[in-house]
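The methods section describes the discrete structure representation at length, but only in general terms. The central task, working out the structure tokens from the amino acid sequence alone, is never made concrete. Nothing conveys this as quickly as seeing an actual entry. For illustration, here is how one protein appears when written out as sequence plus structure tokens:
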Amino acid sequence: MRKILITGALGQIGSELTAEMRKIYGSDNVVASNRRLKEGHEQLIESGPFEIIDVNDPVSLSAAVDKHKINTIVNLAAILSATGEKNPQQCWNINMNGLYNVLETAREKNCMVFTPSSIAAFGPSTPKDDTPQDTIQRPTTMYGVTKAAGELLCDYYFKRFDVDTRGVRFPGLISYKTLPGGGTTDYAVHIYYEALKQQKYISFIQKGTYMDMMYMPDAISAIIDLIEANPDRLKHRNAFNVTAMSFDPEMLAASIRKFIPKFELDYDVDPIRQEIADSWPNSLDDSAAREEWDWNPKYDLDSMTKDMLEKLRVKLNIQK
């Protein structure tokens, strides 16, 4: 039976993954953790075991693994791209030193580790279209550097210490449940809120800027499916390209107009986030994930837009 510890469980991915995993594995078998409490997450905290854990405190991390007899660690504690450029030292400390502590704990306690990478692990010299699974990676942000290095570190712990490490390269993630926390693709979430509240949005990403995206239900499925995948099929194990759709702000606005015809899109480009976006791929080749563990997303742009708007109307109590 799986006994799972999720670090960074109160973040955008963690809050939804914790709820889904508790449905699948049982509430008592999924321990949520975060380095501090956050308002608005009381239901998640009270729905199962919860620990205050800083991944840069290996003693508390190891103690929690022992206390709850953990055999699977999902490491989601991280500083994201735009926030990481404001404080690169903190980004390195949490993303790299934290991952090292998780891997060391897993080595000592014989745990599986899932840790996500990102399209930020690529850089300007990476092929932009249909970016291959195995290709040049020269990221130009601290977040990207930590993700590329983290991929290599996870590979090393598998090959050197036989730690069962697994991971995917996530694109931008879109969710109606939890707001993102300082990433370059955040516009693709904020736009839906403003479409319903104001029927207009000012994008900090320029038109014509294509990035891979994914709806959160598909992201959650990707994590669980890879954790449960047959290890004998996994040739790559870590850093699988996964994607569901690629679009620019104009395409997203066009999708929204199918449901909110008067929606207007304007631009006030953030040069820092635009530079980051320009360094990332336009689209990914995710054939390795499809071949090795049957990756198959369920949502495209229009089906995601329809569901996002429907769910947000309820959440924000906005009538049609």
Remarks:
- The longest helix spans residues 88-109.
- The two ends are 46 Å apart (CA to CA).
- The chain has a mean pLDDT of 95.
- DSSP finds twelve helices and 14 strands in the chain.
